[in-house]
Design brief:
This protein is an alpha+beta fold. It is elongated, with a radius of gyration of 28 Å. It has a domain of 37 residues: YefM-like fold, CATH 3.40.1620. A hairpin with a 2-residue loop joins strand 2 and strand 3.
Length: 86
């Protein structure tokens, strides 16, 4: 397996990707410490996009909860909190 430092990978990314496309693996090093491995994708593990299961309501159709009934005015609490910080 070929090892390459991050700076070299950035400088010659296309060349390294061609190497991986040919079926080889690549280990990325950060100061002699392996941090990642770049491997070729297998042909059978392609991305599969599927439709959502079942009918779901749109976001606009979901009802909002009722407003909270507070004994205190939230704006007054906010102003009191901001004045306390000064």
């Amino acid at each position: 397996m070929k090892e390459v430092r991050i700076a070299d990978l950035k400088a010659r990314l296309s060349e390294h990707l061609r190497y991986v496309r040919r079926g080889h693996a690549l280990t990325v090093l950060d100061r002699d410490t392996p941090v990642a491995r770049v491997v070729p994708i297998e042909a059978s593990t392609g991305l599969v996009i599927r439709r959502p299961a079942g009918a779901r309501p749109s976001v606009a159709a979901v009802p909002l909860p009722p407003p909270l009934r507070l004994a205190v005015d939230p704006v007054a609490l906010l102003l009191e909190d901001r004045q306390a910080e000064e």
